[in-house]
């Protein structure tokens, strides 16, 4: 029976708790850690866990096999390294870390200690998303020429009142790092890393944040294809979309299939036969037994037991940070950036954040919100 500690008992922690509770034959939550121990006590009581609660996670590391890291991003790397050193496997909430050097330290430590590290990418565990990407990846409808990710969300001004948000050196970044990472991960899952990126950063509406609440990037790949990523926290209705335009058809998430034939004059008309072929290819793929965090935790536990390979591993988490770092380097420097980021580059570590441009200065701080409601991914995209 694998013993689990949840580290950080804020808004995302219940998704982890509920995920592990789905597999009582494989694991048990035995510890909860939070600086304000009352938050850990409340979570313990809400789910009737009977777990030990601590204010310092290090006090319980020797008595658990797994840690789920649900803290602010700047703490992810140090906690993961402590946990791996103590012999624990780690499930790390996105982002994996705030810098490439931290990602590389985690990967090196996990290999040395032979520990399993997975980075949360719950969108990979949604049947419709996984199957749409599988169809695009198959090559059945040609090469992906152009991909577009609209990772657009809405957050009111008070979102950044939380003390750790809106600070480059604590949160690590704005919507690009902490919201678009879901779509970025899916794009990378299909296309891999681009050869270059050029980006624009802006803060359009959040005056209590140093960081961006909008970014737009163009990615260029070695095969000549391109991709576009738009990240926003000012988009009412949060109309998410990820689309892949292939040589012989297009797929969108939420799932939709499109295909065009060409008239003699070059103008299009609907190719219904091809569209139905795409829909049939999508429909023939299986659905997942467990989705979202539940699905990822199922895969994580199976990987620890040696029954499955990880679907979202540490290298996937690092790839997200590679591209996001490129976006920030481009946006800050107003120039095109070539990937990968070299280990001698200022942006390889966190040093650049100390002098990152501040769109605004933090004025309001609260320790926590009483309302713990967050966006539910189910049905969102």
Write a brief structural summary.
With 381 residues, this protein is of the alpha/beta class.
Would you give an account of this structure?
By secondary structure, the protein is α/β, with parallel strands linked by helices. The chain folds into 2 domains: 2-123 and 291-312, Rossmann fold (3-Layer(aba) Sandwich), CATH 3.40.50.720; 127-287 and 319-355, 2-Layer Sandwich (Dihydrodipicolinate Reductase, domain 2), CATH 3.30.360. It has helices spanning 13-21, 37-47, 76-85, 100-113, 127-138, 175-178, 181-191, 272-283, 292-304, 314-333, and strands spanning 2-7, 27-33, 52-54, 66-69, 89-92, 117-119, 144-152, 196-202, 214-220, 226-232, 241-246, 249-253, 256-258, 260-262, 268-270, 337-338. Helix 3 (76-85) packs parallel to helix 4, helix 4 runs antiparallel to helix 10 and helix 5 packs parallel to helix 7 (181-191). It is globular and about 70 Å long. The mean pLDDT is 96.
Can you tell me the overall shape?
globular
- As laid out across the biggest beta sheet, the strand order is 13-12-11-7-10-9-8-16
Radius of gyration: 21 Å
Q: Would you identify the CATH H-level superfamily of the largest domain?
A: Dihydrodipicolinate Reductase, domain 2
CATH class of the largest domain: Alpha Beta
Main sheet?
8 strands, mixed
Going by helix content, strand content and strand pairing, the class is alpha/beta
The end-to-end span amounts to 35 Å
CATH-assigned fold name of the largest domain: Dihydrodipicolinate Reductase, domain 2
Percent helix, as a range, is 25-40%
Mean pLDDT level: 96
């Amino acid at each position: 029976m694998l013993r689990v500690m949840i580290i950080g008992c804020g808004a995302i922690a219940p998704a982890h708790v509920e995920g592990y509770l789905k597999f009582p034959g494989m694991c048990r939550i035995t510890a909860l850690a939070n600086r304000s121990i009352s938050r850990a006590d409340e979570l313990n009581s809400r789910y009737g866990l009977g777990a030990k609660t601590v204010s310092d996670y290090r006090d319980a590391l020797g008595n658990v096999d797994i840690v789920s890291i649900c803290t602010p991003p700047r703490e992810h790397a140090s906690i993961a390294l402590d946990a791996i050193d103590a012999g624990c496997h780690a499930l790390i909430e996105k982002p994996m870390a705030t810098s490439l050097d931290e990602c590389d330290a985690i990967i090196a430590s996990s290999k040395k200690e032979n520990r399993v590290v997975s980075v949360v990418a719950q969108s990979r565990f949604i049947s419709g998303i996984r199957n749409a990407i599988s169809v695009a990846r198959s090559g059945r409808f040609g090469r992906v020429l152009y991909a577009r990710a609209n990772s657009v969300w809405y957050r009111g001004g008070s979102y950044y009142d939380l003390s750790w948000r809106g600070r480059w050196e604590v949160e690590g970044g704005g919507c690009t790092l902490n919201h678009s990472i879901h779509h970025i991960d899916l794009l990378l899952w299909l296309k891999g890393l681009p050869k270059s990126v050029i980006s624009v950063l802006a803060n359009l509406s959040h005056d209590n944040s140093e960081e961006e609440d909008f970014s737009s990037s163009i990615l260029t790949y070695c095969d000549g294809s391109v991709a576009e990523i738009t990240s926003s926290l000012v988009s009412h209705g949060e109309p998410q979309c990820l689309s892949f335009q292939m040589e012989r058809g297009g797929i969108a998430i939420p799932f939709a299939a499109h295909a065009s034939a060409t008239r003699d004059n070059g103008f299009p008309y609907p190719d219904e036969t091809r569209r139905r072929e795409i829909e049939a290819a999508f429909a023939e793929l299986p659905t997942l037994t467990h989705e979202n965090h539940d699905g990822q935790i199922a895969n994580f536990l199976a990987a620890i037991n040696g029954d499955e390979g990880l679907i979202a591993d540490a290298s996937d988490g690092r790839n997200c940070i590679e591209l996001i770092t490129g976006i920030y380097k481009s946006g800050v420097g107003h120039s095109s950036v070539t990937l990968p980021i070299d280990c001698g580059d200022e942006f390889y570590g966190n040093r650049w954040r100390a002098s990152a441009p501040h769109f605004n200065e933090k004025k309001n701080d609260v320790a926590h919100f009483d309302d713990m409601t967050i966006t539910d991914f189910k049905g969102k995209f």
